[in-house]
Amino acid sequence: MRKRKVKRLALIILAAAAVVALVDFGFGYPMAFRAGNWRERLGQAPAGKPLYLAAKLIERTPAVKTSPFEEQAAAALEADNVFNRNSPFPPSAVLGLKHYRLMDRQALVAPAPSAIAYPLTIPPGARLEFGYGKPRFLGERRQGGVKFIVEWRDAAGAKMLFEDTVEKYRPGFWDRSKQRERIWYRYLHPALMRWGDAYRDASVDLSSLAGRQGELWFIAEPAEKTADGKFTAALWGNPEVWAERPAAEPAPLNVVLFMIEATPTTVVEPYTENPAVTPHLRKFAERSVVFDKFFTAGDSTQLSTFCYFTGMNYRAMGLPNEMYFLAPMVKARFYRQNYATLAEAFSRSGYQTAQIGSNLFFLPQREIGLDMGFAELDAMNRDYYTSEDTTLAAMEWLRANGSKPFFLYIHYDAPHDETKPVLEDLVRALAAHTDDTRWRMRKYLAQEVSADRAFAHMLEALDVLGLSGRTLVIVTADHGNCLDPAHDFAVLRADRRPWWTPFQHGRSMNAEDTLVPLIIGWPIGSDVGRRVTQPIASIDLFPTLVDLVLPKIDADFKERMRTMDGKSFAALLDPDRAAEAQKFTGRGRIYSVSAGGESLIADGRYHYFRRAPGFDKLLYPGASRLVVKKDGVFDLATDPRELHDLSASRPDLLAAMREAIKAARPHDATLRFIYLNYDQGRVRGRIKLGGTGPLTMAMTYPDGRPAITLSPAAGDTAGNGSLYEFSADLEGPTGLILDRPVEWMIIELGGKRVTTDQARLGPFGLPLEQSSPCGLSDQASSGLILLESCAALPESVLIAPHHPMRFMDEPGVYFYQMKFADFIEESFSDEKLSPAVKSVLKQWGYIE
Amino acid sequence: MKNDRPIKYSLGALIGALIYIILFAYCLAAHFGFSVMGVTDPELSRLAQVYLLKPVILFELRVLAAYLAIGAGAGLIAAAMTRGIAHLFPRLMSRPLQLMKLIGIILVLHVLVFARAVVLYPQLFTEFMYEKGGFWKQLQIFLTDRVGLAPLDAALVLVLAAGFALWAAAVASSWKGQGVLRRRLGIAASTAAAAFIFGALLWWWPAPITNHGPNLIIIGADSIRPDHLSAYGYGRDTSPALKELADAGVRFDQAYVQLPRTFPSWVSLLTGEYPFSHGITTMFPSVADRQKEFHALPGILRDRGWTTTAVADYAGDIFPRIDLGFQYVDAPDFNFRTLGTMRGLEIHTHLLPYLANPWGRELFPILKEFASLGNPAFVERDVKKWLRRFRGRDRFMMAVFFSATHFPYSPPWPYYHRYAEPGYQGLSKYSKFNRINVEENITDDDLRQINAVFDGAIRATDDAVAGIMEALRDDGLADNTIVVFLTDHGENLYENGNGMGHGDHLRGPCSLRIPLIIHDPRQRFAVKAVAERVREIDLMPTLLDLVGLPAPAGLPAVSLRPLMEGKARGLDLPVYAETGLWFVHDGPGFFQKERIRYPDVTGICWFEDFYNNEIVRREEWEGLTELAKHRALIEGDYKVIYVPLPDRVKWELYDLSSDPEERHDLAAERPAELERMKQDLFKLLLTRPGWTVAGGYYVPVAEER
């Protein structure tokens, strides 16, 4: 009796376990149940004749524009965070629709009713391409349907070219709940994912109008009658006229840049003997140029891809590398510098530019993202996707745009996470010949297998579409990953959780974090592979591509590229430039930074890293002791796994590398702070600044009102804009932040000169010198004089590594300095800090 | 009547448990609140609520379990007594009467135990009795001054014995005629007893002595000033054992510490390095500072075959926080969680009477961290336990640290009233009243009483030292064990306006000078009392010298052996000292005005919630707190003190030959001497990497990123 009971219980438990396993298997490895053939989805779409961009209408002034509700619609869109028209931002950041597909296109806000007309002469074989749609997730009052009409009007009359009505959005059963929606699209019917239904693409054949002069009308009408004063927000997406390229003119070269997340050279096949993980890459490498020493300029996606696409070192862009969330001011500073970007280089040359794949750092509307100039972005912003999903989206894009020259950036993000891999790939990864038996490693390798296969499918698609012959394919990675168990440790940061390195990046600075593959299919169609051993940095790719593909780019842009840190290595690729290649000796030393604030110098052989203060306490697994490690140097030639730190045995090498990193570190501006620690009173002053540069900035009160404003002094006899005056009624301690040296300064408070005994220097606010050698002096004629250089003091005594932490300060004038990166890192990344300085920089127009 | 049966044991246990649950709830409700060493701070309370809620709730469950166990035990005893009474007086068998008796007996027992604990450790209860005033204050005074320990002990023994007798009589008569059961029970009981005795014998049987030595015991005590020891000529007989030790060994009359705070002081002592070079400069060093590779005495000895141990109570909570080479650390841990859970036990005044003993400390090790339970006898007991174990080790090194002499100076019965004025009823009756962030008005009576409890604590410590010395003799280790006695720093007791405590300033000899006695039974030294100035850092090379090992190279310290042997008379060692962290940002002391301000300790420190909850100084405050320290140098006849102020650097100069109390600042009068001393101090300080002298201040240089 009892035995039977036990048996029954055991059966129930087993059945329950089986159900759990099945559910976990199905939900955890959804691709196991996914069906689909990429060839079917690609279809038989021919690439068509090569086209060129004849007119980009959005950049033209319309002949007619009637849009009575444009301002209201724009404001409403902005309020809903659908629409961002922050003027300092480059134009492609104008529109961001938030749902599954993010298409950052230029758009015309045209709330129904509205009409916009562009004058035009139609070239032969032309077609009009545009998008149209209405934001889906706005309030009910803008939810009516819209009729979109495109008309051609000329002397001969009007001709309707296009008409479509976007109905009022009625969500389906599944779409009414986020939860249901997720289950439906993720597990049950991923193929039915509705791609951009809110924003449709359209193409109109204009060839019958060839040679005619007239106007293209874009009309948006409400589909149903609306009450007076009500409107429906609608958008026209980047209307462009493309025309057939004359047969005599050779088609420009397309570029597809594949970036596989978190992939060091140690796992990719042309670099390692690791059969069965990336066979397609190996095959591709056999007929391409393989770079053996290609280092990324940053060890995490944010740092690295910004560098790839600007050709600049990270800190040189004015971005602090410890800062994950980019403060509006930091973003604004970036945009103000107007750096050239790779996507922009292509779009200026009449290319379609698109990013497909999850690189969220290129989404400017996010706190972490910056606009890198792509016309279209599909960031695959879904809960679950694979490299194959990304490839399918890229193919779809290619089918629509393959006839026009394109620069396509495909980002395979799957190896980054520990998402469960596709079952088939997991099986292949388990069969891979590698000594590393860790389960996490196999899962990671499965994602590499998957990316490799997706890459192969994309190459095939290029073949099917007839594009292979004129498309340059580049494969690389945004950064490496910490995979070697010998590199496992945690960075113990003050007040935060420990950062563990295994299967992570941005925490350690080993070669495996920055040494990544670079394979370039050059010359196109060649079947002879080559290896290049010179060290190359990722920032070099931008000038190289411009050199190879866009030699005729306009002079303005070339001028902007002059400040770039990257150097073209095109000579290494082009067999015709062999003589030049002989002279190319690589970059010498490559500088790289990490999200932890560390920096690195690699010269192809030695690898020197330096940890930032606050990131130098390391905890090793199993050990209860902390190790404080500020820097280290490794010889990659004899010790590729970086197990033996040479800093003790080779002090000469260590010293040389320390000097090298100092030389390589981008210049970081020093800010001078003059902090007036007085509760109230009328303050007046004059200040003489040395050097040249942008204007000074003033601190504001917590509510945003400027406390002090600087104005050029009337008596500026030199006339070089270096003498300023200021006056204000103080309501509390405030001050000035200057990014130029101070030559002298006179301050009056309540009509009395501030004297030297009220002046305090350095991060600790000490009266570091009471007599004059430091540059502080009481002069009957001029009052307080603060000189920039204090010869008697070491410069670093004046520099504050943190915002000065003081307590119950004496009233007085505090003078200290801070590195720009440290200042913004501390001021803007921590909401609790310095309410006053958060609204600093207004005078520079950094924030609206 | 139907109900007139003897009360059941289970009912007794249940009622006992219920009563103790009520006591638990009462303590929780009446005493709830967070404070550290009697100081309540709103920010600390907020942090405790945010971060410690879960561990404290879990801990309270443990406390509740202890209450329940004690309640059930008391209930069982009471039930046995009730049954005995009922058996002898059948007329008193009515149910309500029995219940009343049961509850009454539980309460009487509890009151007796409680009263006894109040007399033995009054400091545990002052917060909730003496300091409250009124009835509770008078009750505590009555118990400690009028009743005393002996009557309470007698009453307790009497009650328990009577109860046992009643119970035994009842059991004996009720077991009549149950022979078989009785026989079986008897066999089981005697077997269990035999097994217990056998086990106990195995446990207690002394291990054979295989110790060859030389062993080393460093006995430290907190805050003892040499001028409060009879071994150094003090009027009260506070240290007979130390006098004996000093007579047998060498006494150093002028020994100085380098930083008069426990943690830095011990690290300087064991590493032979200045605080600024070993990096432990406050009580709350960062994890990185604590986890460096220290070349300390215990580590050196451990690597050469010594077994190394540290035994301490609450002030020795530094030992688990740093690895100096001790293989065994028998000391309480200190972190933010400890503070929270400690408070979770401190408020249970009705449980503490049962726990304030060695077994209670085993059950709740957090009791070792109680400043109000700093009974040196507990440490003595722990040391003896380790000594028994070390009989079988080839050689050992042990650091012992007594905390009872640290303020609030809370020695147990009878030491707290040994030297006290009988009629005193001020704030410091049982220990020095601790209110560091409130201005104090110390009267002469208070001062005498503070000295009395301080001296009482010293005497209690001395008696424990005597016990350790006796144990050494008993264990046969006395002949090959070097015994060192010293303290980690001295103590200011309001002399010359210098305030109270240690580490806040460097003026006067009281906080910097320590007693130091070295006794090596294997040799006799030519000198009995060394008059030359010596430093705490010198002890490490000295002890290595005595056991025949070389000191690590590059130390600023020297061996004192030549001084002990009389070969280096007149040696003038430069003595460096610096202050610790100021815990509060304001106060009555002169040093609170003559300093660079920073927030109090709750603003300066943080706890690392991912790393053992350790309390550490925040990195961003390191620069300023280090910069703000006062620093001093003693050389020849002079002592110079560097006092950085917000607007200038103040220098003090004292001529120790004519003004040993340091009352007359000669900085203005003797500029040449001042300049020379200044240069010497800066020369020493500039050996610290990353620091420079700028504008007259000693400042850190910003590190390149």
Account of the protein in words:
The complex is a heterodimer of chains A (848) and B (705). With 848 residues, chain A is α+β, with helices and mostly antiparallel strands. Chain A is 23% helix and 26% strand. Chain A has an 8-stranded mixed sheet with strand order 14-13-15-11-16-19-12-20, with helices on both faces. In chain A, strands 1, 3, 5, 8 and 10 form a 5-stranded antiparallel sheet that branches. In chain A, strands 2-4-9-6-7 form a 5-stranded antiparallel sheet, with no helix packed on it. In chain A, helix 9 (387-401) runs parallel beside helix 11 and helix 10 packs across helix 11. The longest helix of chain A has 27 residues, at 2-28. In chain A, 47% of the residues are buried. With 705 residues, chain B is an alpha/beta fold. Chain B has 4 domains: 9-171, no CATH class; 175-205; 215-313 and 374-573, 3-Layer(aba) Sandwich (Alkaline Phosphatase, subunit A), CATH 3.40.720.10; 630-703, Arylsulfatase, C-terminal domain (2-Layer Sandwich). Chain B is 43% helix and 13% strand. In chain B, the strands form 5 sheets. In chain B, strands 4-3-5-1-6-9-2-10 form an 8-stranded mixed sheet, sandwiched between helices. The interface between A and B is large, with 46 and 37 residues.
Name a few traits of the molecule.
heterodimer, A: 848 residues, alpha+beta, 8-stranded mixed sheet, 5-stranded antiparallel sheet, 20 helices, disordered C terminus, B: 705 residues, alpha/beta, Alkaline Phosphatase, subunit A, 4-stranded antiparallel sheet, 43% helix, globular
